[in-house]
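Morning run. Coffee first, then this:
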Amino acid sequence: MPKPGEFYQRDRAWHPPAHVHDYKTSVARSPRQALISLENTVSEITGPVFGHGDIGAGDNDLIHNYAQAGHSALGERILLHGRIFDENSRPLPHTLVEIWQANAGGRYRHKKDTYLAPIDPNFGGCGRTLTDENGYYYFRTVKPGAYPWRNWVNSWRPADIHMSIFGTAFAQRLITQLYFEGDPLIHACPIVNTIPDPAAIDRLIAPLDMNAAIPFDCLAYRFDVVLRGRRSTLFENRLEGN
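And here it is:
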């Protein structure tokens, strides 16, 4: 069996800098010295393997997975779905995808979240699933609300869902956020504005997908994700005639 090719280098111009003056908490959390570039280690190019036995029934249904019997989460019901690819446009099957979010009022189920919006007793705010053989995933959830945060006097975060994708190795793992088409708070957010390329911001916005919406049930938003790719091995190049 041929050895997998090395991962492509990250495009650091695509990601926000670690220190941004208008994102106040980045000041204390960012390094002050130049980063050291290292080659991938064995622990980075390998990773955990997740099977279907690790995923419980209903883990991807946030409307019901924390609710009491006969109840459901409050809010605008949505279907969040998409596919996970690598940079070579290859789908990544059997990949663990996790999400966490605020409830419809904009409050997280966390002891340090003191926002005055009420806790929804039937909404836990987290879920997980595995992609299928085509790299496809989906979640049923409620659209999160906007919420204030202590950056400037009146800073608000747009509605967002946090997402973690493991990929096939730790070097591929991505933790990101997605936003929703049409939200006016996206471009007013100091965190979003740390991203230097407007095209990169657009990639974080999930468009409305009426073709996947379920009549009299939920709207749908599509969010495809691209993880780091691998260089082709010599063996693969010969098979492809390169």
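The two ends are 19 Å apart (CA to CA). Good start to the day.
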